# Entry
Amino acid sequence: MKYRNYFHKYIKPSKENNKYVAHLRMTDSPESKKNLNLLTKIIKNKKDKILILTDYKAIKNHLNNHDINIESNFAKDDFLKLCSAKKELYCSNSTFSWWASHFVSEKCKIYMPRELYEKYGYYGKSKVVSYENYPFS
# Structure
C-alpha cells in the first residue's frame, strides 16, 4: 500500500523495545468510560510491563500493582511509540491507534474494540483480535 511505503520511507518508528503498548483516549472521547474498562480488563491479566500512551494520568489509580509506564507527549511521538509495539498493541476506540496498528511489525498482535474494526476494517498485515480475544475473520 502506498501509505505504508511512504510511512516507512519518511517516518521512522521509535527504536525502543516496547513489547506491549496501549493507547487510552479519555479526555476528549465520548467512549472514555468504555476505553478505560476495556484497557483495565486487559492489563489486569498481563504480567509484563506495558507502555500506556494516554492523556489520563489517573490510570495508575485503576492499575495499582501493575508494571506500567505512562506517557503522554506530542501526538507524533505518541504515534511513533504506538507503532513500536513488538508483541501486542492495544487500541483505544479511536482512529489514532487504529492508524498506528497498520504500521506495527507483522509479528505484533493487535487488540481493538469490535466497533472500531467493524466501522473501519483493517488493512495491515498483523493478526487482529477483539478485546474479547475472538479473532476477526
Q: What stands out?
A: Residues 32-44 form the longest helix (13 residues).
